Amino acid sequence: MRLIRSSARASAPGKLVLFGEHFVVYDNPAILAAINRRVNVTVHVNNTDNINITSDLGLVGSFKDSRFNLLSGPQETRTILAPLCECARLVLSERGCNRGLDIDLVSNLPESVGLGSSAACCVATTAAVDSLFHEPDRYWISEKAVEAERLIHKNSSGADCHISTFGGLMYFVKNEGFRKIYSKKQLSLGLINTGRKHSTGKLVSSVKRFKETNVTSFKVLTLFSEIISQKAFVAINEGDEKTLGSLMNQNHVLLQEIGVSDKKIDELVNICLTKGAWGAKLTGAGGGGSIIVSFPPNSYELKVFFDSLDKSELGGQSIPVEVDFSGVLVA
Ligand code: PMV
């Protein structure tokens, strides 16, 4: 396929897992929401056969065949940038093109805290590179982004790439696909970033070990997770945020059981509940990361707590978020 332009831009949103994280890796449903924070990617065709990647995190490197030249950043830079190079290579190979690229990333999503930053990077890169050739297809983008994301953690459910590509609210089952969820009401969700980074791959592996050593209890927990996600689908549809909050609390207990919550997360969750939240839970892989909170309108005490967080000894930061309905955008 011929190039139709020499540069392109795309952006893709981050996400929250509202229900079903970890269980989704084992073909159970999860519910996700895209959020109004994005990764922006610009690509330029260059005159070499190198794929040069620069991220606003200060990471700069150049890939040529199997070699990597670190230009700026820590030792892990190669591992962090490799999935993005893979996105570009998957597109170039599919389109029969062997040109080099300069790829620039700018993100307003904190990374490694459960907000889908890696997936958004993969989706935006795939979309930007593919739009050098034609108007990209969203299903194709999400499929290729999942392939590249599996370099980061090989058992990825693919949920993050799908929500980042399609936006909105979604009921997702690995190997089956997704259904969009339409809510009668705009959901008001609070988000707390604990500031503690996690490795999704390590947490997914620890859940795998839990599953293998606690076969029966994992089956029971999986069943509960499925029921919770199904009820949450209905609650979101009806705009019933109080029920949604109560389901979040039930989901958090399951995540505690499989060992991905910790003392600090539980403390933050409990404080939110004592200050009037309908529900709160960790979101994403856990082990630090982020917490989501469902709360009634005019929750003055809770809002004061959110605002005071960064100065308190609990640490963390409240991030205002809304659901993003546009998904990946190509400019
Ligand atoms: O990487 P995170 O923290 O956004 O978590 C991803 C959600 C998991 O269910 C834990 C993993 C997956 O592949 O779905």
Question: What does this protein structure show overall?
Answer:
- It is a single chain.
- The protein is an alpha+beta fold.
- 39% of the residues lie in helices and 25% in strands.
- The strands form 2 sheets. Strands 1, 2, 3, 4, 5, 6, 7, 8 and 13 form a 9-stranded mixed sheet that branches. It has a 4-stranded antiparallel sheet with strand order 10-11-9-12.
- Strand 10 (279-283) and strand 11 (290-294) form a beta hairpin.
- Helix 1 runs parallel beside helix 2 (117-130) and helix 1 (77-94) packs antiparallel against helix 3.
- The longest helix is centred in the C-terminal third of the chain and has 24 residues, at 215-238.
- The chain starts with 6 loop residues before the first strand and ends with a strand.
- The mean pLDDT is 94.
Secondary-structure blueprint:
Layout (H helix, E strand, L loop, with lengths): L6 E13 L10 E17 L4 E5 L3 E6 L2 E6 L4 H18 L5 E8 L9 H14 L7 H12 L9 H8 L2 E5 L3 E5 L7 E5 L6 H14 L1 H24 L2 H17 L5 H12 L4 E5 L6 E5 L5 H9 L8 E2 L10 E2 L1
Parallel strand pairs: 3-6
Antiparallel strand pairs: 1-2, 1-13, 2-6, 2-7, 3-4, 4-5, 7-8, 9-11, 9-12, 10-11
Helix pairs in contact: 1-2, 1-3, 2-3, 2-4, 3-4, 5-6, 6-7
The structure holds (3R)-3-hydroxy-3-methyl-5-(phosphonooxy)pentanoic acid (PMV).
